Amino acid sequence: MPVERPRRPAARLLVLDPDGSVFLQLHHDAEVGPHWVLPGGGLEPGEAPLAGALRETVEETGWTDVVTGPALWRWEHDYHRGDVGLVRQHEVIYLASAPHRDPIGDLTASFAADGILTCRWFTPKELAEVTEVLWPPQLVSLLEDLRRDGPPAEPIDLGYVPNPQEPGSDG
């Protein structure tokens, strides 16, 4: 029987550099293990998704000059949030661009608070070869679609994606 989990609204940025590489952060979750995630995170009460994605990205990268675009995708997934426990996260992912660079400033406390182990840029070829879980799991094919077709007119609803370890999943 599925476990009922509290809903957690969140938003993230798909940050691409001028050459099409994507910026990701490596997190570790008790349910999923190591997984690469786009910058962003939970929304504060009353916060608009894009504003929350920008705030979280500044907190996690130090970048204040990220240029944002349209909402691309919506999806939901479960995970174990250290300060809350089990949650069902509902995410909106926005297109964004930034120069290819490392995070700016001392982000040690932010990384520790958010469980970020490391971060890096991935070319499309490198991303296709990642062995850890990607969030969203369809990220490689979604990026291929984005490069081929451009941003969708409306955000694409990816629906609920079970964790690989959950019964009935493909993992």
UniProtKB/TrEMBL annotation:
Domain of life of the organism encoding this protein: Bacteria
Ribosomal protein in keyword set: no
Annotated Nudix hydrolase domain residues: 6-147
Pfam families: NUDIX (PF00293)
Single GO MF descriptor: hydrolase activity
InterPro entries named in the record: NUDIX_hydrolase-like_dom_sf, NUDIX_hydrolase_CS, NUDIX_hydrolase_dom
Stretches assigned to coiled coil: none
Keyword rRNA-binding annotated: no
Keywords, ordered alphabetically: Hydrolase, Magnesium
Needed cofactors: Mg(2+)
Region (Disordered): 150-171
Gene3D superfamilies assigned: Nucleoside Triphosphate Pyrophosphohydrolase
PANTHER family: GDP-MANNOSE MANNOSYL HYDROLASE
Record protein name field: NUDIX hydrolase
Species: Streptacidiphilus pinicola
